[in-house]
From TrEMBL:
Keywords: Protease inhibitor, Serine protease inhibitor, Signal. InterPro entries: Kazal_dom, Kazal_dom_sf. It comes from Candidatus Electrothrix aestuarii. This is Kazal-type serine protease inhibitor domain-containing protein. It comes from the Bacteria.
Length: 146
């Protein structure tokens, strides 16, 4: 049993680290990740696709906030869990895009053995839809960000 637990832990660690990009373009300032490195007030942390808004130590790049956007409705879900009319309006608000489309249909997971963090302004709560209960011996339960 011990070998299976260790194998599971190693596989999870490799999976998490494989999804993390540590390469920052020349001249760019890295942001986010476990250290929570911020950006200047006139910039925002732009996470690349698949970076899960900086969870699992993924980093982004500080980008300038746009001054204006075109009026085009192409909704995106921001890393703050709010829906924006397009990626530009999210950037004006200083928020990176989590995924295309409106927020709500897809829940953001947190906690667990990987210690996934929630976006700023949200907190990790127990997922009532799973069988893992931290109050009854369920260590390393995954949660959802609310």
């Amino acid at each position: 049993m011990k070998q299976y637990i260790m194998l599971f832990f190693c596989c999870c660690t490799i999976f998490i680290l494989a999804g993390c990009s540590t390469v920052t373009p020349p001249g760019a300032v890295a942001c986010g990740g476990f250290r929570g490195q911020g950006c200047p007030a006139d910039q925002y942390c732009d996470y690349p696709e698949g970076a899960n808004c900086g969870r699992a130590d993924a980093t982004g790049v500080c980008m300038p906030k746009p001054d204006a956007c075109i009026q085009q409705f192409d909704p995106v879900c921001g890393c703050d869990g709010k829906t924006y009319s397009n990626d530009c309006t999210a950037a004006v608000a200083g928020v990176s895009v989590d995924y295309p489309g409106e927020c709500g249909g897809e829940q953001i997971v947190c906690g667990g053995i990987g210690g996934f963090l929630c976006p700023e302004g949200m907190q990790c709560v127990d997922d009532p839809g799973d069988d893992c209960d931290p109050a009854h011996g369920g260590a390393d339960c995954m949660g959802i960000c609310k």
